[in-house]
Structure formats: C-alpha cells, structure tokens
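Support reply, case 0932

Customer input (verbatim):
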Amino acid sequence: MSAKKNKKITPKITPENYLKYYYDIPYEGTTSAGKPLRKLRNITCPYRGIKIIPSEMIKGFEKNLAKTKTAIDAVKLLETYKKNMLPVEKAMFAIFKDFALLNPDDNLQNCLQMIQVNALNKLKLEELEVLDDVDMLSRKLSPQTALKLRAKTTKCRQIILSDNKRDTFKRKTFLISLEEIIPKENEREIFNDIKNKALFLPTSESSRNAFIVKYAKRKQVEIVRRLFIASTGSIEHITPASMGGMNTIGNFLLTSASGNRYRENMPLVEYIKRFPKIPQYMQKYVDDIIEEIHNGGMKGNETYPYKIKKKLLEESEGRILISLSKYKYTEEEAALAVEEFEHRWDKYN
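Our regenerated output:
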C-alpha cells in the first residue's frame, strides 16, 4: 500500500482556543476568573464603544465561514456583524463591499493586493510621524541617552525608507530594542513617556493602511475571520499582569479583542490619551453590567460594579468617575447578596 500524504491538521475552533490561535489572547488559564463576564451579552466595549460579539457566536461564524468562496460570499457573511465592527474593520468592510459589487466572483485578497502599494506609502508616513514624536521627546534626555535613542530611531527610518523588500520595519522589534537603553535615575519618567509614545506606532488594529499591508499576504478566510474576531469578547486586566495586576474579577473587564490587544501593557492613563472617550465608554459598560445583574445575570458577583469603580478610579488617576446611581444594590446589600449566593452554593455542593 502507498503511504498516505501527511495532511495539515487545522485545530478545531472553540471559544477556548479561538482568540489564542488567531489573536494571541488567552481565553482560559490566568483569566479563568472572568467566566461570569464571558457569559454576558449586549455589553459595550469599555475601550472602543461598540457592542461586543459574545464568544458563543464563534462556532456559528466558523461554520458559515467555511462555506464562503467568493468576495460576495464574504461580504454577505460580514454584513451580519457590521454593527459590531470597530473603525478600521468597518472601513475595510466598506472597501470590500464596493469591490464585491464589481467583482463578485473574485476574492478579498486580490482586493487588498490592488491597493497595497498606495497603503504602504501612507503607512510609512504614519510610522515616521510617531518616530518624529519620539525624537522630539528625546530632547529632554541627557545627550548620552538621547544619542542611544536617536541611533535606534535613525535605523528605523532607514528601514522604512528603504526599497529593499526583505528589509521591513518591525514595530515589535523597535519596542523591544528600547528596553536595551538604561536611562539615568532622573530620566526614567520621561523615558517611560517615550516608550508609551512608541506604542502608538500603527498596527492593523489602529490603521487601515497597516491592515491592508498586513492582510494583502493572507487568504480570504483569514481576512474575513480578522474582521470578525476584532469585536469578539476578551478578558482584559485593568492593571496589567506585568505590572502586578491580580487575576481576579475585580481587576477584569470584558473588552473587544482588538481593544485588549492594542492596549498591550499601556498604562490606562496613556490609553485614555489615545482614546479620550474611554471614560464615557466605561460608564456605558458599567450600566450594561448593572442591567445584566438586575436581569438575574452574574449571580455571586453583585459587588463587581463597586470593585471596578474603585479600580478604574485608581488606575486612571482620577480620570474615570463611574456613577452607580442606576444600581439597586448598596455596597452592603451587594456584599450580602454575594455571601448568600456562596452559602447556597456551598450547601448545594
């Protein structure tokens, strides 16, 4: 008998592995305490203001995605989730929709390849603008430290402006290289500001041009999946784990996957500078949580609104002031409701 060819095994898509495989965001493990949040529906993303797609919809999406072959198929599938899309994804969907009307039997990868060159030039300008801001801040450093930083930004500029296709600028590489610079004691604060500014280098979450350049190399199925997963639910640490944040529900938010990923380890104060409407979105998020609790959801977590109100106030340095005027529980009543639930649960077990 002839030997069978080894087939590429595609992992079974589940809510547990979906974000890990396609967005490098863990679903379980360190965020397992966030399970009560994952079960919620119709929740506003506290970072971006859109309604989050519940993770339970992943399986149905993947089933329909497997049936899409053409550009028009992809657009029809994505139309269902248009209202949940973030700005970059919504802009890309508009481009794909126009393309599918003229080329219904084509595919979305060809669409991106047609506009890639122009997008790449615009992306380079976006990257250079951020590097200009970084260099501007370097003027506040000592000459020795500033020169070390300028050497790195100059190298980045050379790569960005190079016509060598093999030598491409890598945002992550630059961010890692900044850790090689050890600032003086009195320079640490400004150097942290510089690193936070560097986080604003464009990504496919923040820039339409970065999206086009990145996904012009991907198949249609990956492009369609990316537009969907950006708005799916993800558990986010208010205080990042890398900065000592606890893996407890009182330090967790349910956010869109894109909002989670784009923040990275950025301090919440800096993230608010990037998205000034975050305090407003946080209030909508808490109001949605309160409504869920009033409707019988999140049993045993009635203190959650009070916990994150305090946590957000602290982490945002006073910029996020959450009102709980719509909540029917006082803080004492919420604590009693949690205690009663835990007592009933222990008795049941």
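We compared this against your earlier run and they match. Two observations from our side: The longest helix spans residues 108-138. Residues 56-228 form one domain. Please reopen the case if you see a mismatch on your end.
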